[in-house]
Design the sequence.
């Protein structure tokens, strides 16, 4: 990541023109993002609504930054501080400065670009690109084609157009008999005949910087809305005998603006369709594209399989041959080659190659699982390192812990990491076997090769190769239910069982007459019972381990 200082802050007036940058693209790019976006019906500025892992403005700025302009300007206005704060993150991602002059009053696109020009050096020469913060699907190749046509023709202005079946609301391109552009008329000012034109102005332009500066100074609000229209510069260029060119875009989605949440949903779905299509063509299997969502910064290896209901967000990286899903949401996670992650919710976590996670696992930030390890059903992990080949199979919380390689943590274990004031760390070695329901009271260390019995509460360190148990002898009180809960279903069942030979044998076995202790995994234990404190004769402790 680039350094964390904010590059997008302040107005042009209080900071002065931005310094020159040795860019390879146009002299400048101005992105207009000052509008209120009232149709979104939201406290969040329109350009900060998100899709595909970025806000709308972030998509627009990344697109123009792909041309590497010498100066990059975003004109802000409505909720400017929120927008500037978001732009600071985008600037850091791009590792470049983004200037943010303010349009105090929304007086039209001409006024907005005039505000943007205040952030540029006087006497700037070259191409100035103008785009918008609410057109998120516009791509860098389209802008590159625009700049190429503009500069090759030495044009005063070049604009991107497209044909729409329903051009309602858009400015129409007016052409002369030789198909040359003679002007643009806004929808509100158009005659019925002009409204029948289907070629529309996208609002994306390339200008000659000198012409733009002169043209903006001469703009007037001679229209029904009393606004300064940038489109008037096209007619001004024609009147001055300057070259005007167009680039016609055949993919209307690239120019689709977002003005309300219905349009936001439609554009978001189209972006996701394109992301998945690129992934599938690159060797990823997407079982059900309709229920799979992948952000634009996600990286997928070849032969990755994404099952239905999968959502991959942020900078998630999935290695070759890994399988994710169904019903899995991962944000900023790294999944190793060949790993399998099923019905899991995770963030800022790393899963090693060949490991398995889930179903119903929860990976909180900084959960790290080594190669060929396992985080199983109903396991929650937070801020912990789990070594290669180690298994945490089920019903366990691992927090603030370091676990070595090839260990096994028994079911229903809890790493008790918080004392109400501080979070402390537990360290478990390699080749450790812990019984079910072990409580690790941090800070505590368990040495390599150690064992614990089921139900053990660890408050003290366990040396390598030792067995730790904390429970006392089991106490059985005969006939307690019959005496203390008479008349209940349980008491009646006990009476019936006691009246049979089978019940009598069971009772005698519980009283120690021939009873055979077993481990928690159902195998016989022929040595002394370690939970009763006797020296184990090499057997698994009562309670055993889970896998």
Sequence:
């Amino acid at each position: 990541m680039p350094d964390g200082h904010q590059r997008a802050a302040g107005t042009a007036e209080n900071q002065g023109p931005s310094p020159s940058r040795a860019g390879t693209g146009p002299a400048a790019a101005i992105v207009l993002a000052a509008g209120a976006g009232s149709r979104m019906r939201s406290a969040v500025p329109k350009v900060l609504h998100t899709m595909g892992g970025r806000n709308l403005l972030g998509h627009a700025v990344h697109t123009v930054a792909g041309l590497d302009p010498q100066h990059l300007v975003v004109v802000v206005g409505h909720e400017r501080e929120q927008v500037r704060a978001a732009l600071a993150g985008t600037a850091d991602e791009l590792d470049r400065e983004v200037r943010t002059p303010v349009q105090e009053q929304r007086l039209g696109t001409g006024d907005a670009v005039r505000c943007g020009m205040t952030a540029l050096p006087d006497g700037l020469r070259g191409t100035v690109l103008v785009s918008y913060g609410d057109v998120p699907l516009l791509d860098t190749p389209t802008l590159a084609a625009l700049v190429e046509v503009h500069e090759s023709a030495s044009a005063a202005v070049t604009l991107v157009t497209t044909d729409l079946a329903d051009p309602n609301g858009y400015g129409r391109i007016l052409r002369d008999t030789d198909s040359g552009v003679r002007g643009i008329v806004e929808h509100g000012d158009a005659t019925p005949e002009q409204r029948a034109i289907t070629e529309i102005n996208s609002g994306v332009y390339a200008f000659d910087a000198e012409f733009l500066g002169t043209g903006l100074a001469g703009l007037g609000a001679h229209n029904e809305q009393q606004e300064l229209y940038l489109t008037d510069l096209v007619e001004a260029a024609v009147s001055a005998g300057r070259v005007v060119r167009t680039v016609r875009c055949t993919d209307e989605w690239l120019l689709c603006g977002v003005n309300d949440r219905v349009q936001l949903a439609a554009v978001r779905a189209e972006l996701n369709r394109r992301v998945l299509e690129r992934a599938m063509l690159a060797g990823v299997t997407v079982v059900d594209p309709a229920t799979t969502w992948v952000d634009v910064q996600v990286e997928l290896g070849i032969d990755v399989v994404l099952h239905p209901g999968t959502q991959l967000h942020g900078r998630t990286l999935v290695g070759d041959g890994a399988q994710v899903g169904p019903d899995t949401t991962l944000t900023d996670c790294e999944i190793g080659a060949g790993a399998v992650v099923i019905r899991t919710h995770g963030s800022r976590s790393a899963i090693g190659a060949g490991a398995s996670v889930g179903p119903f696992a929860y990976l909180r930030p900084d959960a790290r699982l080594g190669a060929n390890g396992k985080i199983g059903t109903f396991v929650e992990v937070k801020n912990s390192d789990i070594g290669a080949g180690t298994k945490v199979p089920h019903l366990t919380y691992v927090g603030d812990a370091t676990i070595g390689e090839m260990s096994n943590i028994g079911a229903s274990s809890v790493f008790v990491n918080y004392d109400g004031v501080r979070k402390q760390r537990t360290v478990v070695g390699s080749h450790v076997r812990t019984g079910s329901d072990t409580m690790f009271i941090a800070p505590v260390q368990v040495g390599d090769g150690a064992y614990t019995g089921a139900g053990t509460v660890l408050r003290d360190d366990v040396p390598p190769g030792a067995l730790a148990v904390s429970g006392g002898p089991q106490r059985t009180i005969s006939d307690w239910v019959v005496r203390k809960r008479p008349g209940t279903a349980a008491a009646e069942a006990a009476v019936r069982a006691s009246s049979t030979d089978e019940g009598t044998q069971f009772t005698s076995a519980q009283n120690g007459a021939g009873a055979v202790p077993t481990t928690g995994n159902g195998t016989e234990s022929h040595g002394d019972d370690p939970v009763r404190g006797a020296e184990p004769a090499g057997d698994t402790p009562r309670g055993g381990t889970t896998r």
